[in-house]
Structures are given as structure tokens and as C-alpha cells.
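Support reply, case 0932

Customer input (verbatim):
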Amino acid sequence: MCAPCGCKMIYCYSRRGTKVYGYYTCATSREKGAHSCPMPSLPAAEIERMVISEIAAICRDPTLAGRVIAEAGARHDAAVAEAKARLADAEDLAAKAAATAQKRTDDGAHRGILRQAEAQVATLRSVLTAAQAGNPRTPAARTILASFDPVWAELNPTERIGLLRSLVERIAVDGHAGRLAVTFRASGIADLAKRGVA
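Our regenerated output:
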């Protein structure tokens, strides 16, 4: 994400002879012109190196790792609460649909509505189960985060991309200040643990 304007950063590349140069640029700047956002285009290799370095530093520092776990835990709690509320609403609708279908046994439309409502309830139960399973507040959470470096070193490029997508929710880049901020995904710590770490 582009910190100055809040838009997404997109990966682009250019060729010079046989060499390919990758870079990240602000989507707003690319679509509306350089005057629309002060963020310059940034070399992809340098940004990616900074991101990995920042993640590794956060994971190694017990205080920062504790903050990551607390923030991810708060987001986890919010996701579980939202999933519970959506499930409760769907269960209410399903109960009303069941009552209506029971009164109008000759009406196929109401039975169809009931089937849809029951399917929605089943889906939302799965969503809630998945949300509850992603709790980052495990006794081994700090150990799991601290093991980022050795895990990273053993992954192939495809596995590294998968780990980053599961571990990182958002990266905000400020090219002028030379800073970036990493927001961890609540379920990402659990995903790191599934890779054989603990």
C-alpha cells in the first residue's frame, strides 16, 4: 500500500536489452500521472529485501513480537465476533423460513428459501470454525515468530510467496521517508506454526 495516498502499490517491470528491472509504483500515480501522488517508483528487489528484513526484525524482537501477537489477537477477536453475529442472523432467518415452510407445506418456493437459509447457516458455521482456529494467542506464538529466519531460509521461492501472503495482511510503503509498516495477518502466525515450527 502507498502510505502517502492510501492506494495499492503495483508491480511493474521494464526491459533494457536482455535485463528486466522490476519496480513498485503507486496505482494512482500510474493511472493519473506522477502529479497525483508524491510516491516515487521504487526498485522491487530493494522493497522486497526491506520487507523481509522488517518482518525478521519484528519476529526476533520479543517486545515487537508481543505487540504483533496482541494486535493480531484483537483482529482475531473482531473476526470471530463478526462471524458469530452473521451466523446468529442467518440462524434467525433459517428459523423463520422453517416456520413459514412448515405452515405452507404445499408451497415449493418456501421450501427452496429454507434450503438456501440452511445452506447459508452451514457456510457461516464453517467460517466461524475457521475464524476460531486462527487464534494467534498460543503458548508457543513467540517461539513460532522467532523461528521466521530458519523457516524462511529453507523455503523455495513459491513457498516464500505463500508464507508472506498468509503472514502479512498489509505493507505500507513511504518512499520519501524510507519507511515501511508491516501489518500481520491474525491467522498467519498459525500458518507459520503449520510449517513445522514450534
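We compared this against your earlier run and they match. Two observations from our side: Helices lie at 27-32, 44-60, 62-103, 108-133, 141-146, 148-154, 157-167, 188-194. Strands lie at 9-16, 19-26, 42-43, 168-174, 179-184. Please reopen the case if you see a mismatch on your end.
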